[in-house]
TrEMBL record:
Protein name (database record): histidine kinase
Top-level enzyme category: transferase
Superkingdom classification of source: Bacteria
Location of the HAMP domain: 149-203
GO function terms (MF aspect): kinase activity
Signal peptide (from-to): 1-21
Subcellular location: Cell membrane
Chief localisation class: membrane
Enzyme Commission number: 2.7.13.3
Keywords noted in UniProt: Kinase, Membrane, Phosphoprotein, Signal, Transferase, Transmembrane, Transmembrane helix, Two-component regulatory system
Pfam families, A to Z: HAMP (PF00672), HATPase_c (PF02518), HisKA (PF00512)
Gene3D superfamilies according to UniProt: 1.10.287.130, 6.10.340.10, Histidine kinase-like ATPase, C-terminal domain (3.30.565.10)
Alphabetized PANTHER family for the sequence: SENSOR HISTIDINE KINASE TRCS, SENSOR HISTIDINE KINASE YKOH
Amino acid sequence: MTLRRQIAAVIALVSCLVALAVGALVHQASVRQHTDQARKSAMAALDAALTGYDATGELGAGWHAAADDPALPAELRRLAERGRQGSVLGPGPRGTAMWAAAGTDGRVLSVRIDYADDERAIADLDRAVAIGAALSVAVTVLAGVLAADRISSRLRTAARTARTIARGDLDARIGPLGRARDEVAELAAAVDSMSAALRSKLAGEQRFTADVAHELRTPLTGLLTASELLPPGRPTELVRDRVRALRDLTEDLLEVSRLDAGAETPDLSDLPLGPLLTRILTAAGAEAELRIDSATVVTTDPRRLDRVVANLVANAQRHGRPPLLIAADGATVTIRDHGPGYPEEVLREGPQRFRTGARERGGGHGLGLTIAQGHAEAIGVELRLSNHPDGGALATLHLPAPVAGRSRP
């Protein structure tokens, strides 16, 4: 149940309980007032009847006075026979009546005052209270629903922004949620402050990574040049190999920092997918089987798509086993090897830089998949990593369709 419904349900329940309590109290007070008034009137009529009876030996015609009235309630009759006076609310010839009786000269004298008008007045008051209570409950519940909807709307706004931040957009802010200075506004301010702090920290780390990679470029270029001057031999090859690896790592770090900063704008165009994949695989020198089911045209940046496919192919060649199969079905491209598959942490959390798993037994820094994912996001390609049911790693690329009205190059 949503927070809005919970608040509305609680307000409705409390309002109904309050309305019932108030209605019961008003009903009891009304009954007590009418009963006391009728009892006073009956006792006054009884005193007047007794006075007239003692003076004249006859009962007056008013107040429905009678001697030994058979309709007199039994408990009041027994009380009067013991020489005491009393009154009771009981049935009468024309509905409920207030009886008063007293014993005198061996007889029971009684008077009766109709109570039907009082009952109608009480019923009318009960109806008025019920209508008023129902209207009050409806207004209270409506006001509660509106207040709960406002709170819920503000919380949903905060939740949407928090999810946006979790997806990596650290520029997202909740902002002021109205003029209220309550706990929701405090939560929004805390989330915005957290996002700003994360943004600042991440920007600092990106600058540090870019600066380190940039500063390493010059000495690495010098080392690579110097290694070319070494005499031929196995030690020289090892030195050159390690220097090239360090240079490639530096270039990857620079590329990751550019992707994190979003410094490059993709150059999108509509291109036939088949020739594009053929050109990418030829340039990569990959020994792979290419299957193209249709002459599909996709919207992409060929340079970035080249980087995505080349990195996925290189990852499959380094950590998987042949045969390597690349298939294009419509705008969907799959790259599958027959190795051990992606590690569970990669499938669960996605590519992580400088994190390698069981699949990376051949080495690596975890940057290839990170760069492929970054370029894929930049050109609107959905990249999914999974393991094929029959074994091997499976990377699936869903490319966007061409935009209507855009001319092909």
